[in-house]
Specification:
Length: 165
């Protein structure tokens, strides 16, 4: 697995801002439902991070990191409306890895790339504890939703569908 330095960048951000966090080591896993069970919490407490390609028109394509609760799906129609886009789809793995500076299954709910816009569902930032893989398959992190919102500064919009709404 390539080392993008993203894990160290995240830990540096948390430490430099004196943000309380918990590191959780576990078996290597990138699937939200499975890793949530390994960490000992419900999938609804996890941040599911999906990188999308948003075609605003024929010439303008944006990339969006959509963060929703782990037991929900990204509502592509809501993303399309939010960006007044013609098309919204899932990004290919190579582009996602380049923009997220992490391999699929380890994407953080943070954007460290100016070409990747961050949008989080309000139910993510409202979580007392938010769990996510820490740019590694074998280590996760937990922070409060409020601390996540303060550090990541996502655009907060209703973008989740399914699950408990």
């Amino acid at each position: 697995m390539p080392d993008h330095g993203t894990y160290q960048r995240l830990i540096g951000l948390l430490d430099s801002t004196a943000t309380p966090y918990e590191l959780i080591d576990h078996e290597p896993e990138g699937t939200t439902e499975t890793v949530s069970a390994l960490r000992g919490h419900s999938a609804s407490e996890a941040a599911k991070c999906i990188i999308l390609m948003v075609k605003v028109d024929r010439r303008v394509t944006r990339h969006v990191l959509a963060v929703v609760p782990g037991d929900r799906r990204v509502d592509l129609g809501a993303i399309r409306t939010l960006f007044a886009a013609r098309y919204v789809g899932f990004c290919d793995a190579a582009t996602a890895e380049r923009l997220a500076h992490a391999v699929p299954g380890t994407v953080l709910p943070f954007s460290f790339d100016p070409g990747l816009e961050l949008v989080a569902d309000p139910d993510v930032v409202a979580r007392p504890r938010l769990y996510f893989n820490a740019a590694r398959l074998d280590r996760s992190l937990a922070v409060s939703g409020a601390d996540y919102a303060r550090l990541a500064r996502p655009r907060v919009e209703r973008i989740a569908s399914g699950g408990s709404e």
